[in-house]
Specification:
CATH class of one domain: Alpha Beta
Distance between the termini: 29 Å
Shape: globular
Helix content: 10-25%
CATH architecture of one domain: 3-Layer(aba) Sandwich
Number of strands: 38
Strand order of the largest sheet: 31-32-34-33-35-36-37-38
Number of helices: 11
Oligomer: single chain
CATH superfamily of one domain: Alpha/Beta hydrolase fold, catalytic domain
Mean pLDDT: 95
Strand content: 25-35%
Structural class: alpha+beta
Length: 672
């Protein structure tokens, strides 16, 4: 057996990540996307794989020479639609026979196509594409070099006239048009634009009889200021359009019932007095319009907010049981998650797949409901697909592993199992935390790194964290906790840091450090702290409140709540729930801005920021850097990441370099 060594940042080149899975209609095959990174090209790749329930074997279906993602089964199970950039240029939708044969491109929209949804007869795909003013979305962009150069120069210096409150979005850039839905026939025929107007559309779902297309769109006058939308129903024959919901929620993940009489979906309450609520599981009667929240009266959320620091799958949509009498959904439970079942009639919610030692993001049930496939992770391994028995037994032994995309790497690496514990915070509130010990035992107490999650409405948990494993391999203990404001512990807990950033949440984190130190084997004189986004805000806040940490790294952070309100892409809506409007609560904005306390900072601080971050704009980091540099009381430097956004790196190498920059600073000022 090969000698096991510690994880390093360079291991990211070797790792594979299952980012999506879909079960075929007859339950015989699983299609899944595997993401990897090409070191020579410094690019991300992705391929579609198939796993057979009959043989237990997997085979690669697409080449993965570029990015093939989001596989979607045709109704008869003979074809897979997927997104790919294999032709160069914009991402388009392709189809491939699962029994062999070449993939072919079926969409040719000018600005690309995404989110393929099959029509009930399997003859067409519904796709989403951007439509810009004075452009024909069905006329592809020219690939002729001179025309491409002219177009790029024109777009580079064209002035933007902004009239919308929401005019740019992190990871997407500036809004130049609206997203619309198109019907693309597979075997010839004209492509049809199904939606129009100065509105965005998405989350399409075709009814079982093929007559109605459901989708979400916000068509209110204040649509840029509310972050809500509605379910709309489009009769594909008559083009009659009907609004099904009342505008009070942000709705998403639409799923038709087997008989086509009801529509299930998830709903987030409109931001107002609170910024975060339990996500509702709703069922609407399509004919009558009545809506029922299947989780009414329960402190339960139909969502999973667990954070992860490697490429990860999106959470599954709810799924109807074959008899149409209940819905299955993923729900976070503390630092883990489970698949639950909610009867439409309103009876008790049952646990179908318990996973108290894992994080589940996706699931699929066999047609007879006897077997479940889950895409899950745990602290020792990244995402893989497992087949499990239904029944809800806590962490029951899986019937089998369906994928093992990192088998070779896992066999040669030491993966630390964290100590999971709870402690009472300053006011008696119970907080959950995890402590990684160094990968190799040492004769002296270990330095401790406090790692703070973003959000704040997210959480740490039973997932794989590459940076925690790397730090443990370098001789550090790593602590992360879910302070008040985190998800998974009930709605009141998630709302507990609203209008109190830097208050109870800060005290929870300091209590977490004290609780970890009390467990022994740690050096209280060698503490470091790091975090991204809200975790970066808290890192900035901490070093302005205490000098107990010897090193700090803040990434894509907020430093000035007042200026963030006018520059961040979501602040004009979310700020109302997080800390109130600035013109009503200016004193709080100033008091709870880390910049206000810059004069007390003595901890060596490395500031890392993405240059295209529109969520926590780089100007936030620039302000703090200049203040600390002028004050001269703390060692500080500033790392700018070109062409990166809040959650998207410009390249795999840039992601690795950022990990190395974090390690280098901590090792310099708080050596192990």
């Amino acid at each position: 057996m090969a000698e096991q060594t510690a994880f390093t940042p360079d291991d990211f080149w070797l790792m594979r990540f299952v980012t999506d899975m879909r079960l075929s209609p007859d339950g015989s095959l699983l299609a899944y996307a595997v993401q990897s990174n090409d070191r020579a090209a410094n690019e991300t790749r992705s391929a579609i794989w198939l796993w057979s329930a009959a043989t237990g074997q997997a085979r690669q279906l697409t080449s993965g020479a570029r990015r093939d993602t989001n596989p979607r089964w045709s109704p008869d199970g003979h074809l897979l639609a997927f997104e790919s950039d294999r032709a160069g240029g914009k991402t388009q939708v392709w189809v491939v026979p699962v029994d062999g044969g070449e993939a072919r491109q079926v969409s040719h929209l000018r600005r690309g196509a995404s989110d393929p949804v099959w029509t009930a007869d399997g003859a067409s795909l519904i796709v989403r594409g951007e439509v810009r003013p004075e452009e024909n979305p069905l006329e592809p962009l020219s690939d002729e070099p001179a025309e491409r150069t002219r177009r790029e120069k024109d777009e580079a210096d064209r002035p933007r006239i902004v009239t919308r409150l929401q005019y740019r979005w992190d990871g997407k850039g500036y809004f130049e048009g609206r997203t619309h839905l198109f019907r693309v026939p597979l075997n010839g025929g004209a492509v049809e634009q199904l939606t129009n107007g100065d509105f965005d559309h998405g989350d399409a779902a075709c009814s079982p009889d093929g007559r109605v297309l459901a989708f979400v769109s916000d068509r209110d006058e204040d649509r840029d200021a509310n972050m809500t939308n509605d379910v709309w129903l489009l009769d594909l024959a008559t083009r009659e359009l009907r609004r099904l919901t009342d505008g009070g929620l942000r709705v998403h993940h639409l799923v038709w019932s087997p008989d086509g009489t009801r529509l299930a979906y998830l709903g987030d309450v409109k931001v107002g007095a609170h910024g975060v609520h339990n996500v509702q599981l709703l069922v609407a009667d399509v004919a009558g319009g009545g809506v029922a929240n299947l989780l009414e009266g329960r402190d339960l959320s139909a969502a999973n907010g667990l954070y992860n620091d490697v490429p990860s799958p999106a959470t599954s949509a709810p799924a109807w049981a074959p008899d149409g009498r209940s819905l299955l959904f993923v729900s976070q439970r503390g630092g883990a998650s489970a698949v639950l079942q909610a009867p439409v009639a309103g009876a008790a919610v049952a646990t179908v797949v318990e996973a108290s030692a894992h994080d589940i993001q996706q699931f699929a049930a066999s047609p007879d409901g006897s077997r479940f496939y889950v895409l899950r992770t745990d602290p020792q391994q990244p995402w893989d697909i497992w087949e499990v028995a239904a029944g809800g037994q806590p962490d029951a032994a899986p019937a089998g592993r369906c994928s093992d995309v990192n088998a070779a790497l896992r066999a040669t690496r030491v993966a630390v199992t964290p100590e999971r514990f709870r402690f009472a915070s300053f006011d008696g509130t119970e907080v959950e935390a995890w402590l990684y010990r160094p990968a190799h035992a040492a004769s002296t107490p270990a330095p401790l790194v406090l790692w703070i999650h973003g959000g704040p409405a997210t959480g740490y948990g039973q997932a794989f964290y590459l940076q925690a494993q790397i730090l443990a391999g370098r001789g550090y203990a790593v602590l992360y906790a879910n302070p008040r404001g985190s998800t998974g512990y009930g709605q009141a807990f998630a709302q507990a840091c609203e209008r109190d950033w830097g208050g109870g949440d800060y005290r929870d984190l300091m209590a977490a450090v004290d609780a970890a130190l009390a467990r022994g084997g740690l050096d209280a004189e060698r503490l470091a702290v790091m975090g991204t986004s809200y975790g970066g805000y808290m890192t900035n806040w901490i070093v302005g409140q205490t000098g107990r940490f010897k090193a700090a790294v803040t990434i894509n952070s907020v430093t000035n709540l007042l200026s963030s309100f006018g520059t961040g892409d979501i602040d004009s809506v979310w700020a109302q729930g997080d800390y109130g409007w600035p013109w009503e609560n200016e004193q709080f904005y100033r008091e709870r801005s880390p910049l206000t306390h810059a004069g007390t900072v003595t901890t060596p601080l490395r500031i890392i920021a993405a240059e295209h971050d529109y969520r926590c704009p780089i100007s936030q980091s620039e302000e703090l850097f200049v203040w600390l540099k002028k004050l001269g009381r703390a060692p500080v430097d500033f790392v700018r990441l070109p062409n990166a956004s809040h959650g998207i790196f410009a390249s795999p190498r840039q992601r690795i370099r950022r990990m190395e920059l974090v390690l280098e600073w901590i090792q310099r000022w708080c050596p192990a």
